Task: structure prediction
Amino acid sequence: MILVLDIGNTTLHGGVFKDDKLIFQFRKTSINRVSSDEMGVFLRSVLLANNIKSDEIEEIALCSVVPDAVHSIRNACIKYFNRSPFELKAGVKTGLKIRYRNPLEVGADRIANGIAAIHKYPGKNLIIVDFGTATVFCVINMDKEYLGGIIVPGIDISLESLVQRTAKLQPVEIIEPKKVVGTSTVASIQSGLYFGQIGIVREVTQRVTKEEFGGNQPVIIGTGGFSGLFSNCGLFQTVIPDLALQGLRLALLLNR
Result:
């Protein structure tokens, strides 16, 4: 079995693969830094709760956009699983040609998404929209060239900023509203958050399609923690919340 860990700014998203099947997933906040022992105990506990013993984990792969979290997680893997984890970072094989001016600036989670996307849709132009702490667009052409991307505030950040900078607006549940015009303050905020993200995605993907792909429709993939909210909005050919985890497993196989 393979344990995969995607360490984001807000959430640690993990999962276990048996052969090529993701048999379960879990999430943990990553805002508060923890020691290697705390992380090791958590990982062993969540595996045990899903009837998996720590010695059944044969390999571990991780990617992180939080550099100071890697040390404790790496040590946790060594101490509690007797495994040194593979880390998806600059210098490893990915199958992608990075066209960023500085390839080191591309987040490891974006690379993981790209690896999984080109595996699922070979020979296709791709736009990946990752709904996480930020809403991140990744643009990949049919020749597996990572052309670049777009980063905008995520739906959670938008809500947090709205609440912090206004006197009367309060936190609300992030949901898919039934209609765009809200008839209460709560409903109005929920509508703005949801349909605002849809408007951004529609505008950005249309511009990318025109500028990078000559108007030829690419495959548009939704992923990330909030992607399930947008599965029925009609903007995506597919929504794959665990795309980064799948990419991590593929990256591990490429670099064995």
Summary: The first helix runs from residue 36 to 49. The domain at 97-248 is CATH 3.30.420.40 (Nucleotidyltransferase; domain 5). The chain is about 35% helix and 25% strand.
